[in-house]
Amino acid sequence: MTALSGEFSTPFGNAGHASSKIALIAAHVVSGLDAKVLVLNRHYSAIRVVDARRAFILLAKEIAEVIAVEDGSYVSYPFTTWTELSEFRREFERAQHDWVRTARITIAVPKIVRVLCYDRLPREQVKLNRRNIYARDGNQCQYCGKSFATKELTLDHVKPRVQGGGNSWTNLVCACVKCNARKGGRTPEQAGIRLIKPAVKPKRNPAISLRLGSPKYESWKAFLDEAYWTVELSD
Ligand SMILES: [Zn+2]
């Protein structure tokens, strides 16, 4: 158990008094803990995506409630009620949920939770990292336009580092090995090639956009389409 406790550090620090409940969740888990959960703030604006592990901590500490879609409308549940209703859902909606098993019961992983208290969970910034750049560019070489497997792609500095180009959303793109070699330490203009589209900072986490294609995360859309969400993340 103690080995697992590190996984339960939250933006709120130590899990504290809720640790026994959380320990119960941690002790007997199945795959559902890796499912993704959309977190809303009090005003129903999407602020980030967390894995089920973290969502259950927010729920167990009574920092958040569950938001579920039922007959086309959104219904909120305190964690205890959600837990009690899981038996029913297991019987009638088994395929619609991911599941987490504790020592005593099996709980449906919520798709959405809403943070109830004041807004301590900051809005997620899109991190500038390799995975997000590849996701933004859809694994497509930004010079020749062809799609490649992740391992066949490289990160290219549009304006090369030797010419003072830095690490930024607007200066890093996916490039295939061939295009990268051809370009060498030159700018696209110097190399006589062009970007297929300008490099920009994504408005939302590219991983969220990928998940929106799945029917499983259908219920997220209403919250992600809000202007508030997209406006906040832009430059
Ligand atoms: Zn290429």
Total individual domains: 2
Choose one word for the global shape.
Answer: elongated
Strands side by side in the biggest sheet: 2-1-7-3-4
Strand content: 15-25%
* Small molecules in complex: zinc ion
Biggest pleated-sheet summary: 5 strands, mixed
The level of helicity is 25-40%
Topology:
Elements: H1 2-5, H2 19-27, E1 36-40, E2 46-51, H3 52-60, E3 64-70, E4 73-77, H4 79-92, E5 99-101, E6 106-108, E7 112-115, H5 130-136, E8 153-157, E9 172-176, H6 177-183, H7 188-191, H8 206-211, H9 221-224, H10 227-233
Parallel strand pairs: 1-7
Antiparallel strand pairs: 1-2, 3-4, 3-7, 5-6, 8-9
Helix pairs in contact: 2-3
Bound molecules: zinc ion.
Structure explained in plain terms:
With 235 residues, this protein is of the alpha+beta class. The chain has two domains: 2-124 and 210-230, no CATH class; 130-191, DNA Binding (I), subunit A (Orthogonal Bundle). Helices cover 30% and strands 18% of the residues. It has ten helices and nine strands. It has helices at 2-5, 19-27, 52-60, 79-92, 130-136, 177-183, 188-191, 206-211, 221-224, 227-233; strands at 36-40, 46-51, 64-70, 73-77, 99-101, 106-108, 112-115, 153-157, 172-176. The strands form three sheets. It has a five-stranded mixed beta sheet with strand order 2-1-7-3-4. It has a two-stranded antiparallel sheet with strand order 5-6. Strands 8-9 form a two-stranded antiparallel ribbon. Strand 3 (64-70) and strand 4 form a beta hairpin. Helix 2 packs antiparallel against helix 3. It is elongated and about 65 Å long. The two termini are 43 Å apart. The relative contact order is 0.13. The site of zinc ion has 8 residues, from strand 9 and helix 6.
